[in-house]
Amino acid sequence: MSTDREALAPGAAYEADEESAGGVVVKDGQAAVIVPVKRAADGLRVLGLPKGHADGDETPEQAARREVAEETGVDAELVDELGVVRYQYERRGRKIDKAVRFYLFRYLSGDLADHDHEIEEARWMPLEQAANELTYAGEREMVRRAISLAPLDR
User: How buried is 111 (Cβ within 10 angstroms: 0-12 exposed, 13-18 middle, 19+ buried)?
Assistant: First the structure.
């Protein structure tokens, strides 16, 4: 069960049971979006941004870049922090507070067909369309922030 997602500004203080990192990768006015194999709690397909947990001693920035590479198949350059999306979900009857720190990335190279097995589909989508069509409001807000920050390749 997911509750509403709250978007916080870059550098905002927060506490969470779980933390992840992800990215908005921009190329020619488009964002890399994914459809994970794992469905939403209601069983529907999710259209989202690449994200995941840090491995070992990774910083959030390193984790975001690695997750972008794994889930989209592309190499990207970190540009700026976009903010944090906070939400709750339930696991084995316990509410979990989760925070995902998002970063803006500029596409460098690679092919979206090279995504990993956790991803059903990765594709480019116009930024404005992604800001309206991603499944979760917090991720839509991160794309809006990317649009406002960067003329990146547009």
Answer: exposed
